[in-house]
Amino acid sequence: VRCWSNIPFITMPLSRAHGKSFAHRSELKHAKRIVVKLGSAVVTRGDECGLALGRLASIVEQVSMLQNQGREMMIVTSGAVAFGKQRLRHEILLSQSVRQALHSGQNQLKDMAIPVLEARACAAAGQSGLMALYEAMFTQYSICAAQILVTNLDFHDEQKRRNLNGTLHELLRMNIVPIINTNDAVVPPPEPNSDLQGVNVISVKDNDSLAARLAVEMKTDLLIVLSDVEGLFDSPPGSDDAKLIDIFYPGDQQSVTFGTKSRVGMGGMEAKVKAALWALQGGTSVVIANGTHPKISGHVITDIVEGKKVGTFFSEVKPAGPTVEQQGEMARAGGRALAALQPEQRAEIIYRLADLLTDQREEILLANKKDLEEAESKGRLALPLLKRLSLSTSKLNSLAIGLRQIAASSQDSVGRVIRRTRIAKDLDLEQVTVPIGVLLVIFESRPDCLPQVSALAIASGNGLLLKGGKEAAHSNQILHHLTQEALSIHGVKDAVQLVNTREEVEDLCRLDKLIDLIIPRGSSQLVRNIQKAAKGIPVMGHSEGICHVYVDTDASVEKVTRIIRDSKCEYPAACNALETLLIHRDLLRTPLFDQIIDMLRVEQVKIHAGPKFASYLTFSPSEVKSLRTEYGDLECCIEVVDSVQEAVEHIHKYGSSHTDVIITENEKTAEFFLQHVDSACVFWNASTRFSDGYRFGLGAEVGISTSRIHARGPVGIEGLLTTKWLLRGDNHVVSDFSEHGSMKYLHESLPLPQRNTN
């Protein structure tokens, strides 16, 4: 039973048969019935006379895509007045030109004034054309559309309400998209905002309230309100410090200052919020977003339905903790406070964290055991990933040793002077190291990554946002708690934040005003997805670890099998594991070659033959599908080359610029390889597995970078620093250095201050 207030023009929903609205954006993908409200600013051109055809076509395409997925789509549209205004202006100009030509007898027309056009007349002239346009567009996607015109009186009359409800349900049943609009040709002038005192009542006086009313009446899952602003801001858009509100909760109205109404149409943002809250109370989720921005309007509707962070999402469920935006601001402020500490204080925090890893090992291992048990019971992780997820006493001890290395080496990182120049007398310039700002580190199945990265961020004075995989949730929680406990000894607890909200990684990558650098640590697919999703934020990392070992003709028999075994078999899931083995052609059918093959078989390594290697064999292993493959398991490719030069060319063509090795006793050949291979790490007679921050003596690493930016290879503290310039003068001005000025540039290099090497 549905009960409604008997106050004229006002209704009140008391219950919803379809339950409550969605609590989180990620649930919007389950929306079945959706209303899309197109504001006047979205549908009309900037001159308010005529329709924005390109934008409208894009919206129809998105609605059609969702309709063809099996959803039930409805559109509440504006635009009839603008379309009619365009038609009437054209008719008036044509009529005036004909009359003027008849009366004056002249071909030259004088300036003609266009009278003010009455809105209801424009609506009457524009409705048929607007609907014809929608029909033509939807026909391109084999979808039928139907027009429904309503007024507030139609909702006041119980019989008309039932008829409207039945018509809409029948259209949806037949897979037809209803296109609804207020009948502006007969609608009375808008009434005063008598119903803005609460959210329990609403009258249909604009398309915002119409969309909300229909959404509640039809028990829709989602109402998308498209306007000409990104969403709801905490103050008028364009004003200083105005911030987009990601999630809006009932009761937050007091924290918002509303600006003026839309440039066209009846409503403003206050009317949209009023309608959205009313629909939310009725059980319909609401998102207000920008439907006019050229970069996002082509996918704004589908992005919202996919749960992406677009516009303002209205929710009745307020999370217990801070939002990710708030966490970003906390990390920024905490990072600045961290950078302001003395180097000894930052080192003290890291030493404390190292102690906590060993002192609290039982709690850490207990949490890790929960993660392992859940992962095994669900069967969602492969064996190599389970190994990465697992923590042990020896791993924690190694972590603690690495953290102490970082603490010891961090004494002279932030604020180190790397260049001094005397510009002129009493005008000295310094270039000093400073933190990058706020880092976002995204990692999978690697809880040991959390204390490593935290220690490096602390040592370099950076704020840190951590996003770990849900498979390591318990481990990450305890490790983050211990990190904040260590930070608390100097009051900078907020510098390291663990993102526990239901944020999608793609949404985090869009926070370009909060994050300065993204560092992904995980699969090549994760890294590629982040590189693709990052909007205006640099990404440090590598998408693939296709590492090569080249066995030269002058290779030592004793060294070859040891280095290959360690490179491939010690930890095959690592990004620095051997993936392609290059063998000089002269070594084929030699005892050394047989030893290599026997060793790989004993270690149960599956061999794939490269094209040239396969051509030498009568019965070869399975031929490789691609020479650019990262196996991440006990598999590798073997290919034959004719020379060290060909080996270098192969690596440049198929490698990922990660780590590449030559095994040879010929120093000249080795040096050629070392100098010509353009990878982040190039080794001679050493395992690829040495490509690691801890093994390099960096204490730990935030990741391995294969890009050409300042940090390459294993990235430690130095890779998390940038610089700033400090100029100290005494009443200096540039005009003094002009041709006839009193001062001259010196540009003298000055000695650097003595570094602390203890």
- Number of alpha- plus pi-helical segments: 23
Q: How far apart are the first and last residues' alpha carbons, in Å?
A: 79 Å
What fold name goes in the CATH topology slot of the largest domain? Carbamate kinase
CATH homologous group name of the largest domain: Acetylglutamate kinase-like
Q: In angstroms, what is the radius of gyration?
A: 34 Å
Catalytic activity: L-glutamate 5-semialdehyde + phosphate + NADP(+) = L-glutamyl 5-phosphate + NADPH + H(+); L-glutamate + ATP = L-glutamyl 5-phosphate + ADP
Domain Aldehyde dehydrogenase: 324-588
Family: In the C-terminal section; belongs to the gamma-glutamyl phosphate reductase family.
Pathway: Amino-acid biosynthesis; L-proline biosynthesis; L-glutamate 5-semialdehyde from L-glutamate: step 2/2; Amino-acid biosynthesis; L-proline biosynthesis; L-glutamate 5-semialdehyde from L-glutamate: step 1/2
Short description:
This protein is α/β, with parallel strands linked by helices and 758 residues long. It is built from 23 helices and 24 strands.
From the structure above, extract its key features.
Aldehyde Dehydrogenase, Chain A, domain 1, eight-stranded mixed β-sheet, single chain, 24 strands, Aldehyde Dehydrogenase, Chain A, domain 2, Carbamate kinase, 758 residues, 23 helices, alpha/beta
Detailed description of the structure:
The protein is α/β, with parallel strands linked by helices and 758 residues long. The protein folds into 3 domains: 251 residues, Acetylglutamate kinase-like (Carbamate kinase), CATH 3.40.1160.10; 194 residues, 3-Layer(aba) Sandwich (Aldehyde Dehydrogenase, Chain A, domain 1), CATH 3.40.605.10; 154 residues, Aldehyde Dehydrogenase, Chain A, domain 2, CATH 3.40.309. The chain contains 23 helices and 24 strands. It has an 8-stranded mixed sheet with strand order 3-4-2-1-5-7-8-6, sandwiched between helices. Strands 17-18-16-15-19-20 form a 6-stranded parallel sheet. Strand 11, helix 15 and strand 12 form a beta-alpha-beta unit. Helix 7 packs parallel to helix 8, helix 14 runs parallel beside helix 15 and helix 19 runs parallel beside helix 20. The chain starts with 32 loop residues before the first strand and ends in a 9-residue tail after the last strand. The N terminus is likely disordered.
